[in-house]
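#struct-help
A.M.: can someone run this one for me? Single chain, 114 residues.
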Amino acid sequence: MHQLNGAWFELTPHAIQRALDMALDEEQIAGTLGNPRHVKSAVAGRELWTRGKVAAVLEPRDGFWAVITFMWSTADGWARDRELLGSRPTGLDAERTRKQRYAMKMTRRGRSVR
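D.P.: on it. Structure tokens below:
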């Protein structure tokens, strides 16, 4: 549990791993959580806090905020992420993702894709 500007935060294991993957430093994390520039409502009662190139998804819990994940708030950050994820053996390339989405769309319409 960490405190910033009077609020308590707990980082989930996923948020910690994501911060490490993104090579975020302590200043970027503290800036996003302690002094967000934009706060927007998200699904399931969560909020999206953004400052600079970093965004965080938070969920209110009993007396503290749970940080669910970190992500990039700029297209440049996402492009770099795609390059890294594409180089991993488990990453999906754009063509395979497009084919999966098309197959799901056709399945919902009651058509088989072979």
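A.M.: thanks! Residues 1-73 form a domain with the YaeB-like fold fold (CATH 3.30.2310.20).
D.P.: also worth noting: The chain has a mean pLDDT of 82.
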